[in-house]
Fold this protein.
Amino acid sequence: MEVLLQTLIAGILLGGLYSLIGIGMTLILGVMKIINLTHGQLMMVAMYITFWLFSIFKLDPYLSLFIAPPLLFLFGMGLQKFLIDPVLKVESILPHNQVILTVGIGMVLQNLATIFFTSDYRSTPVSYATDAWYLSDIWKTAPIELSLSFSWTISFCIAVAITVMLWYFLAKTDTGKSIRATAQDLDAAMLMGVNVNMMRMITFGIGSAMVAASGCLFIPIYYLFPALGSQFTLIAFVITILGGMGSTMGAIIGGLILGVFESVTATYVGMGWAPAGRFLVFIAALVFLPGGVASLLKRHAIRKSK
Amino acid sequence: MKRYFPIIVLAVLCVLPLVGLNTYLMHIVILSVMWAVCGMAWNLLGGYCGQVSFGHAAFFGTGAYCSGILAMKFKLSAWYGFLLSVPLNVAVALSMGLIVLRLRGPYFVLATLAIGEVFRIFAENVVDLTNGNLGIMIERTWVEKTQFYYIVLGLGLLAYAVVKFITESRWGYYFVAIREDQDAAESLGINTTLYKTIALTVSAVLTGFAGSFYMVYMGYIDPQIVFSLGEISILMIMVVMVGGVATFWGPTVGAVIMVILAELIRSIPRVGVAYQTLFGILLIVIIIYLPNGLVGDFAKIRRMFQRGAA
Amino acid sequence: MHKKLIRKKKYLIFIGILMVMAFGFSMRVYAEDIKFAIPLPLTGAQAKFGEIEQKSYIMAMEEINAKGGIKGQKIVLRFEDSQGKPEVARSIAEKLIDVDKQPVIFGEYSSSCSKAIAAVAEERKVPYIVTTGALDDITQQNYKFVFRICPSNAYYAGGLLSFFAEIVKPQSIAILYESSDFGTSGADEMAKSAEKAGMKVLAKEKYEKGAVDFKPVLSKIKGANPDVIYMVSYVMDAALLMRQIKELRIDSKIFAGGAAGFAIPEFVDNAKDASEHVMTATLWSQQMPYPGSKEYAEKYKASFKTYPSYHGAEAHATLYVIKDALDRAKSMSPQDIRDAVKATKMMTVFGPVEFVDKDGYQNQNFMDTLVLQVIKGKHETIWPKKYASANYVYPIPKWRDRK
């Protein structure tokens, strides 16, 4: 019982963080139809910014949430405007050039990080790094011991908060609605007077900021090295496909599903197979549920409205 | 002149070992030819047929492990791996096709990427068969490179001939039609699924040959090397994109550039460490200014120089 | 007119590139010195270890040159980056042997790279001294030209196992390991030895490098309640594992590591208080009584601010073994150097070096392995007693009771 509960807790906490990573990508993929293979590298950049702020100014990683995401927002907008947009406009045989472009950008970012910061593993050993809340502290005669790691929980809560803010932004504000319009139908949005180019820049910026935020939240519980980008890019993809391209709610649910699935697989099947499980979920979603969780939600909503 | 170009290139390549290059340079040339084979294989599916696969490492690695497992587990000569890789890669291609060929656009890309990674993880975990991360090491048949060179050259010729034959036949037209507008092609009565499968299978088998060659030539493989996303799948795509999608010579030019340029830059003392940055920048520049690759946009290059001179 | 200028410019650029290339390739032409190129992972995940080895090689080179070099000739070292990839290491070895005609090869860090180079060296009949690659079968292949200074994986945990047998007497063990060749072979060895020693292997869990969350697996292990948790990891995974073990309050009798990540100071820096009382197998520590060990460690610390890991000592020793062999060799041909290496019998900062054929191994150096324990934030040697720098702490306090 204890093992199962602890596994589920771990899975949910992990899932919440995964969702934040996935949300940025699903937005970009949904609005701009761009496969952004440099997503993880942007997270890495944010983590390095956070690391250096911690090392030099002793700034707590959580406070870097006010610095790194905005910087990455601007950086993302710049990438979109100067590199990605020109490629989309170019006449070429294969429309997949933008994917390769993002691969190139990712290579440059990763290599620059390696040159300037070396491949040394870095971490931000904050004072509360190993603190946790224990069930037996609160309930003295508990039959089992459950622990809730302090930093994991804080990261999870902040991730949830950011996700809710993003959802609110997309659903209730004008800019948010314009972005969603651009995602649904580019031409119609243009006809309605939406500044489509600006929307795309903002979307890429938001996507980058989201993944930057998850970087800040990850660094107290993990560590940092230049090559960590690729595994998180892949995680983002799995969540995007699982949740449905462009759907924020889908990304949230997809992230949680993935987190719990990975934890349960790790405990009951074996940790070595966890990455394979990730991909099998991915392929299964692609084949059996191409619209992702979002399509399930939509179907449910339609059925309810009948 | 144009008609004799391939024959001249072939003649030069055949006498290359006699020129007396040292083994290091021969190694570079062999790698270039191997990558040219991979590039041509990928180009058939991606450039001509428009299905951009990010998971060709699955075929490469399967070919490599065919040779490796035969040598390690069954004590047969690794060269039989070439033969075994054909039916195996056909099977892999067909099963992959069942899953991915119904997908379009970004979904296809991501699915192939995922399958490539699944193969890697599979190879890492099924330790009894593949020796997992310990890899497979075998004795190489020859210590000098000359024989390997001629074999890979033969492979290159095979790939070139196959690609040329297919693209210049009616199938080639079907491929391009599918690439340009799949729905229109379907509506014209072209069985798109059949032809996509053919492209995928031929591409898979050729890539598998390159993989088998890698095993017998390098003598050591492990899942991180031959099933690698970045070092195999993506490199294959870069080779073709830099050289020129949907052209005959594109993949070869791309392979030569990627391999030789990489080695050159790596050996410059201070700059060597930054070669990935330079490569990334090169990639970005080519994507933006020469989206159809060096060969594909050759006319554009010529125009750039002419403008400079005028 | 303009066209001619453009053509001239292109010509100049072409010549310029040729000159840069020529300069680059010519960097190797200097007679009268003995030149060695050493393959190491200078970039990539293992760069930290490659760096420690590189610094140690340079230190040893300077010391040897100050005392007259080898037969009066100075040693000049150059380093080639293998990026931690076996196929690159192999290409480098081929280049060194075929093109540069280097008569003896040494270096590299990981087992897979060392194994790849060993195969090339044996093929081309050039002696190769393995510095840190620990995979057992590197010296079990009946190679005539491959020699290994470090003990093989099977012996790594020798000191740890004797500590278990005499002091702890555990009944059960859970093994957690990274899925690389190093982790896999370390875990397999420990599983075999544990069973021989009468311990039940309750779990043997593999994880992929870069894993974020070990808590699911750790909860399962906690439920099994093993006496010993044995981990084979590199430094960041090691730190993360201990931190999460602390979070889950798993109270095993012993937490032990299989060298590598557990044996370097960064482990304590990153795991902080979760690293206290953790033990690890190791091959060497700066408290060793071998002549020159302490001086080497202190000199390294003075230059580079931290103590070297055992990999540094291995590298330092290797260069001295090379010098000793070349001093005795009849000529600079690979075969003669090989024979001289085979006859090595000397003391180095890493310990005694002698290449013997024993227990199915060929040309292998056998030596005692030790146990370190983190006591008050520092690695202390605790076992065997004759090398101990501090008393071991056992039993260790429960997590809840620690400050």
The beta strands of chain B are 136-137, 220-221. The first strand of chain B starts at residue 136 and ends at 137.
